[in-house]
Description:
This protein has about 550 residues and is mostly helical. The chain folds into four domains: about 1-205, MFS general substrate transporter like domains (Growth Hormone, Chain: A, Up-down Bundle), CATH 1.20.1250; about 205-260; about 270-515, MFS general substrate transporter like domains (Growth Hormone, Chain: A); about 515-553, no CATH class. Helix content is about 75%, strand content about 0%. It contains 19 helices and no strands. It has helices spanning about 5-10, 15-35, 40-50, 50-80, 80-100, 105-135, 140-170, 175, 180-190, 205-230, 235-255, 270-300, 305-310, 315-350, 360-390, 395-435, 450-460, 465-505, 515-525. α4 (about 50-80) packs parallel to α6, α10 (about 205-230) runs antiparallel to α11 (about 235-255) and α14 (about 315-350) packs across α18 (about 465-505). The two termini are about 35 Å apart.
Amino acid sequence: MSSRAQRIQEKAYERRWLILVVLCFSLLVIVLDNSILNVALPTIQKDLNASSSDLQWIVDSYTLVFAGLLLTAGSLGDRFGRRGALQIGFALFGLGSIASALAGFAPALIGTRAFMGIGGALIMPATLSIITNVFPAHERPKAIGAWAGVAGLGGALGPLTGGFLVQHFFWGSVFLVNIPIVVVGILAGFVLIPTSKDPGAPRLDPVGALLSIVSLSIILYAIIEAPDQGWGSSSTLILLAVGLALLGVFIGWELRSDHPMLDVRFFEKPRFTAAAAAITLVFFAMFGSLFLQTQYFQFVLGYSPLETGIRMLPFAAAMMITAPFSSRVVQRIGTKYTVAIGLGLVTIGLVALTGLQADTPYANIFWRLMLMSAGMGFTMAPATESVMGSLPIFKAGVGSAVNDTTRQIGGALGVAIVGSVLATTYSDRMGPILSTLPAGSGFEAAGNSIGAARAIAGSLPAELASVGTALVAASRSAFVTAMHQGVLVAAAATALGIVLVLLFLPATARDEDLGEQDFEFATEHVGEFPLPASVDLDAPRDPDFGLGRSSGE
C-alpha cells in the first residue's frame, strides 16, 4: 500500500461523515438518472423523431443493464477493491452521460444509456459497501439511514430537476448535469475514500457472473415488455420461464461452487431474506405509485413538469427525515416493528390515495404523500441495515448488490404491474364513451392513454370543441378510477410485506445472523479496515455491535 493510500486509510474513521456525504452525493446521481429523463421524453421524441418504442427503450436500456450487472459488479468490487469499482464506475458513467447528451438519433441514445448502466452498476453497490466498512457497527444504522434517505430523495427530485433543465436548457442537459458530480466523486476518491476488499481474494466465478447477468436481464426484459405484450402472452410467459430457469441454474451452480460469486445460503437467514423482501415490496409500491402520481398531477390536475416536481418535494422531505431517524426507533422497539410500522404507514397512505378525485386540491394530496413517504423512510433504512448487517463485512459489495437488485426488480415490477392495471382499467372505462363517437375518426386512440385523449381533444376543430371538452373530462374520470385500482394493488404488496416482516424478520440482530464471522474477521484483519481508536478487540464482544465494546462505554 502506498504512503498516500496508507494516510487515507488511517484518516478514514475521523473523516467518515465527510466520506458519507461524498458517497450519498454519488448515489444521488445514480438514482436521479432513473427519473430525471422522464420529463425530457416529449422533447426527445420531437428532436430525434423517436417512436414510442424508442422512448421506452431510452429509459429501459439503462435499467436493464444496470440491474443485470449489479451482482457481478458487487462481486468484482469485493474481489478487486470497492474504491476502484467506484472510480471506474464514475468514469464510465461520465463518458456515457456526455455521449447521451450528444446523441443525434434514437438508437444511439439507447446505446449510450445502456453504457451508462454499466457505470451505475459499479457505483451503487460500492457506495453502500464502503459505508459498511468505514462506519463501526453502532454508527452504521444512522449512516445507512442517511444513504437510504438519499436513495428515496433521488426518485422524487428527478421530475423537479428534469423539468427545470428542459424548461431552461436543451434535453441533453439532463445528462450533462451528471458531469460535475462525476468529477467531484473521482477527485474525492483519490483524497478521501479508503480502499477495502475481501482479503480472502476469492477466485473469479465467470460462470456464475454470466448466469446472473443473463437470467436477471431476461426476467427484467419480460417484466418491462409485459404491459405491451400482455402478461398472459406466449412471449412474456416464455421469457419469464427461461429467465427463472436460468436463475435456478445460477442458484444450483453457486451452491456447488467452492468460490461462489454469491453465497446463496445467505438467503437461509431470516434477517437477510425478510429484509430483502421488505425492500422489494416497498420499492414496488414507491415506483408504482410515483408512476401514477406524476401522470395524475400533469394530465388530471394540469400541472407542468416543473410544477409537478415542486409538489413532489414533500415526498422527498419526509423520507429524508424519517430514514435517518429510524435508527433511534429501532433502538427502542427493534427492527421488526419499525419496518412493520413503516410498511403500515405506506399501506395507509396508498389506500388514502383512493380518495383523490379529478379536482382534489393539493392540500388534500399533501398529507397523503407525507404519510406514504414517512413510512418508506421507516422501512428502507432498517431493512437495508438488516441486509448488510447479516453478512460478513468482507462480503459487503455483493451484499449491497443484492440489496440494490431487489430495489430494481421491485421498482420494475411496480411500474409494470401497476401500469398494466392502470392501462386496463382506463381502457375499460373509456370504452363506453368512445362507442358513442364516430368510428374510424381517430377517437379510439383516446382509449390508450389520458395523454392521447388530451392530444386528440386539442387537435379538434373549433366546431367540435364541445366533443373535445367531453373527451377530456371522460379521460380524467377514467384515469382517476384506474389510479385507484393501481394504488390498491400497491397497497396489497406492502400489506403482504407487513405479514412477512412480522413472521420472519428478527426484532434484533442475532449471533447466528453474523456474530463470530464479523468478529473473527476483524480480529484477524485488524488494520485493513478503518476502526475507531476506542474499539477494543480484546474486550468482551457486544452482542448488539458485533465488535469489541468501546472503551468509552
